[in-house]
């Protein structure tokens, strides 16, 4: 089974299960709805500095100072880099004329006006591509891997991508410096997790998850032993944890990695019992597990709610926490809160109707133990969208559904779409002060378009 098919199948299964889940949830009161009005973004002084940095990169490119783009037979300043395969027919990279035409088309479509605030950056030392992995760590954006294959159309049956890339680069927005990084052992994708100065990537191939570590200080990759449960990776302070996804087919295994012994050790059984759609976040010095109760399907009397437990590494013990009233997944820790950012709801449908709708998302405050509803999303405009995930953390806010969510102030802020709009397979990376967008498929070819939106 292909990597893409596996990923899409898991995503479909998770979405289907989430649509069958929940219980009583506190509705928003009038004050909460009033507080949900979105605030407008003001571009701060960082934007001016970034514009200057972008200009420096352009000048450096003209002078031949910055790393050359990786092409067949090309080399980077840090050494020879494996050449990317030549683009197939219909996959030619964008040249200057192409970009001008695309920009004009975007302006005709009203995209350029909506992209106010974005800074067009000079090209990265990477060939055009889509679905590259992206991360932010210690003041730099990291781009790795990706594919040259055209994306699989929605609802289509496609073979697994075969034109995969392993090179990468990092970018410092403060100086405008690009730096080629060592090739990955395999084509990395998705969003890695950061522990210390290391980025950990989980790559699924033929249904098996491999784990690969990139040490940003040493510019070196390592292959880790895979966790026995093939769980999803979570950064838990200075630890790397693997959380098993479901107890449906076999008992889920949660493990912590010991880098000195290069081995995984199982955590004690959690107190939630058989669950599905299991995931975890690190907040307030604890590992917080979120999972859905396994209920009959069909035949459940009510929705399957998100249940919680926390793990204390100091005592190696679990603590059961009160259940929520939400039915969604995809929890993210941000600003001391746990956010399930899906603004939708479900009522069980015609067959298993629950009598009312239950919210998919909500905000949990570990300090008080209280759940609250998401603020009302009154502006549903087209903001910047991510290829691999619907969420990423931008400082103390969450990038989700094209908006920034401040879980403390309880406000949404609509972000403008990138200069060419939201492309299929574009990589979106959020940092504390800005959002970087790279690459994507414009409908006929891969691009290396690069833009940055400073955040005020």
With strands numbered from the N-terminus, the spatial order across the biggest sheet is 3-32-31-30
Largest sheet properties: 4 strands, antiparallel
- The beta-strand count equals 32
Give start-end ranges of low-pLDDT stretches. 1-114
Structural class: mainly beta
Taking the alpha carbons of the first and last residues, their distance comes to 44 Å
Number of domains: 2
Q: Quick one: overall form?
A: globular
- In DSSP terms, counting alpha (H) and pi (I) runs of 4 or more, how many helices? 5
Helix content: 10-25%
How much is the average pLDDT? 77
Task: Report the β-strand fraction as a percent range.
Answer: 25-35%
Give Rg in angstroms. 22 Å
Describe the structure.
This protein has 456 residues and is mainly beta. It folds into two domains: 1-32 and 225-374, Neuraminidase; 36-156 and 375-456, no CATH class. It has helices at 3-18, 30-35, 45-63, 96-108, 111-114, and strands spanning 75-76, 79-80, 119-120, 133-137, 140-144, 168-172, 177-181, 193-195, 198-205, 208-215, 220-224, 232-236, 239-243, 255-258, 263-266, 275-283, 286-293, 306-312, 317-321, 332-334, 337-340, 345-346, 358-359, 362-365, 370-372, 391-394, 397-400, 403-406, 411-414, 427-430, 434-441, 446-454. A four-stranded antiparallel beta sheet has the order 3-32-31-30, covered by helices on one side. The protein has a four-stranded antiparallel beta sheet with strand order 4-5-6-7, with no helix packed on it. A four-stranded antiparallel beta sheet has the order 8-9-10-11. A hairpin with a 3-residue loop joins strand 30 and strand 31. The longest helix has 19 residues, at 45-63. The model is unreliable at 1-114 (pLDDT under 50).
